[in-house]
């Protein structure tokens, strides 16, 4: 876990909001059409719709979040779903408490 890299990713309000929304996806996103659960996360399209930003911007944001290991992608056919990486998020928070 790279505390500086994660902090850079979290310096963007939209990326922070995405992580907040993914914490309780059933409360923040409509049900998926093809899958009846959120076990693998939320479809990129739903995240894009909620932010109101372009597909390319959201893809860039999710890619940076993935590179920092904050989210875990799962492919279902042509769609990618994202969920929080709770283990890394907890380690980051703990590192902030103990190291700073």
From TrEMBL:
Domain of life: Bacteria
GO molecular function per UniProt: DNA binding; DNA-binding transcription factor activity
Organism listed in the record: Flagellimonas eckloniae
Xref: InterPro entries: ArsR-like_HTH, HTH_ArsR_DNA-bd_dom, HTH_MetalResp_TranReg, WH-like_DNA-bd_sf, WH_DNA-bd_sf
Record-linked Gene3D superfamilies: Winged helix-like DNA-binding domain superfamily/Winged helix DNA-binding domain
The protein, known as: ArsR family transcriptional regulator
Annotated HTH arsR-type domain residues: 1-100
Alphabetically ordered keywords of this record: DNA-binding, Transcription, Transcription regulation
């Amino acid at each position: 876990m790279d505390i500086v890299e994660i902090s850079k990713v979290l310096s963007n309000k939209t990326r922070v909001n995405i992580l907040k929304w993914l914490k309780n996806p059933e409360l923040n996103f409509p049900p998926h059409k093809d899958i009846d659960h959120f076990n693998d996360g939320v479809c990129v399209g739903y995240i894009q719709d909620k932010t109101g930003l372009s597909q390319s911007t959201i893809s860039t944001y999710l890619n940076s979040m993935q590179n920092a290991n904050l989210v875990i992608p799962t492919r279902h056919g042509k769609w990618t779903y994202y969920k929080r990486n709770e283990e890394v998020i907890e380690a980051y928070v703990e590192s902030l408490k103990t190291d700073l």
